[in-house]
Design brief:
Layout: E1 6-9, H1 15-26, H2 30-43, E2 54-60, E3 66-75, E4 86-94, H3 103-117, E5 123-125, H4 132-140
Parallel strand pairs: 4-5
Antiparallel strand pairs: 1-2, 2-3, 3-4
């Protein structure tokens, strides 16, 4: 099958399209995600377009349409991993009309190359315990279940 897309680093002008794809994955709204990306760029401008340790990739067709998006961060630790310094897949999404065309696999392969070049030996990710589709996606793409955890949040008063 011919690959009709290119994987590249996301650019600021991709924010709206990326946010539209990724918002359902995060349970967020697209406008909020696009604003967050712009805020990160403003706060870390001295380090380039993105904060250090943040990877944002897109799959683009020949006409410039964004067909898929991936976000990952470098974390010191991730549950279930053995190494220190882990690439963490924060979110990945492909336009519904383009699913099962190899876009997600290509995005993950590029992320793996980036991690390998940085000396990182593990990619971690998570999904909600009740998200069978997310679990199936991870297992079909080379992930294995590491461990199950309960997350806690402590709010900080302003």
């Amino acid at each position: 099958m011919t690959q009709n897309f290119t994987i590249r680093q996301a650019r600021p002008e991709d924010d709206a399209a990326r946010a539209t794809l990724l918002a359902p994955t995060y349970g967020a709204d697209a406008a909020g995600l696009a604003a967050e990306a712009a805020d990160i760029r403003r706060r870390f401008w001295d380090f380039g377009d993105l904060a250090p340790g943040i990877v944002r990739l897109v799959a683009e067709d020949a006409n410039g349409a964004i067909l898929g998006a991936l976000e990952a961060t470098v974390r010191l630790y991730a549950n279930g991993c053995e190494s220190v310094g882990v690439m963490f897949l924060e979110g990945i999404a492909v336009a519904p009309s383009c699913r099962e065309t190899g876009i997600a696999a290509a995005l993950l392969a590029q992320l793996e190359d980036i991690a390998r070049e940085a000396g990182i030996t593990e990619i971690a990710s998570d999904s909600r315990i009740d998200d069978a589709v997310g679990a199936d996606f991870h297992l079909a793409n080379g992930f294995s279940e590491g461990e199950r955890v309960t997350c806690f949040v402590r709010k900080i008063d302003g």
